[in-house]
Amino acid sequence: MMRLLQLRAENYRLFHELSLQPRCRLSFVFGANAAGKTSLLEAIYTLSRGKSFRGSAQAELAGSVGRHWRVTGRVATNEDAPTHHLGVQWQDGMTRLRLDGREATSLDLLDALIVQILEPGMHRMLQDGPTYRRSFLDWGVFHVEPSFLPTWRRYRRALRQRNQVLRQTGSDRQLAVWEPELAASGERLTELRRQHIDALGPAVAARLARLFDEGPWQFELQPGWPQGLTLAEALVRGRDQDRRHGATQMGPHRAEVRIRVNDRGIKHRISRGQQKLLIAAMLLAQSEAVAEAAGRYPILLVDDFGAELAERYQTALLKELQHYPGQVIATAFERSGVLRHIDDASMFHVERGVLRALD
């Protein structure tokens, strides 16, 4: 099982120095508002992705003692494998990533420390445009299917070239040079996405049946071009429209993940608390799909566990987290309600950027 064994941070947000060593598979960090709970999860996320989930510029992560910060960690990918040492450092406007003492890329960190997060901003995945839903889907496909990344790169390269021809008002003949590669990689990319969402749908629906009483659920990929056409055919038919826009209007970069319950859209159908449970179910199902393919359960970060959830929903979500085989690190305002009687978790308290263990 993938485990974060140790996290250290220096001059990161509120933390002058931070040291976290989760003892149990499930950990909770308690503290008041603005005490540093979210920043602690942000540090773990940064160690995995090289950047914040809050969209902050690297300079904004620096604390009060200068324009620099560093996050390091020790990770066990599974019980039999050696541990890995990861590091992300920002100084003098430069970000350096390291893995086991060597210079690394963000993809190296992403593979060494697989992390997903449930945080309040993720309501955008349901409320805003398709970009967030595509990003969620592609994160899973990346970890499940090794051919995804080279296929995505092929598609993006051909898309850039075709768009350049469109901006230069090129001829049909010039457009046709890039369309076979764009169509072939785009069709393959869509098939990988469809396989992933078809596998996720029943697993998400089964979890939602335990979390709250709605259903049946439908999860559908709309590929980004009209049904009944191949992508190659859609590209040819769309040339005039593409010229007017100066960019390719059809393809996987315009795909949408459609989520419905009882054959109705969910945007104004379910409450904020139910939206949180839906996203949790999607993350848990996707994490189990990643574990089945990669042999490692992603580490789940849950920010503000009880927010927007009635006690019965908190109980249901907690039960799902307790049954998840991977590591979970969550934050909450205080140890009360359904969290009061947990005895199988590491407990921490943070105040003004100072973390201490409670157990």
UniProtKB/TrEMBL annotation:
Keywords: ATP-binding, Cytoplasm, DNA damage, DNA repair, DNA replication, DNA-binding, Nucleotide-binding, SOS response. Gene3D superfamilies: P-loop containing nucleotide triphosphate hydrolases, RecF/RecN/SMC, N-terminal domain. ATP binds at residues 31-38. Pfam families: SMC_N. Residues 5-338 form the RecF/RecN/SMC N-terminal domain. SUPFAM superfamilies: P-loop containing nucleoside triphosphate hydrolases. The keyword Metal-binding does not apply. It is found in: Cytoplasm. The RecF protein is involved in DNA metabolism; it is required for DNA replication and normal SOS inducibility. RecF binds preferentially to single-stranded, linear DNA. It also seems to bind ATP. This is DNA replication and repair protein RecF. It comes from Sinimarinibacterium thermocellulolyticum. The lineage of its organism: Bacteria, Pseudomonadati, Pseudomonadota, Gammaproteobacteria, Nevskiales. The gene is recF.
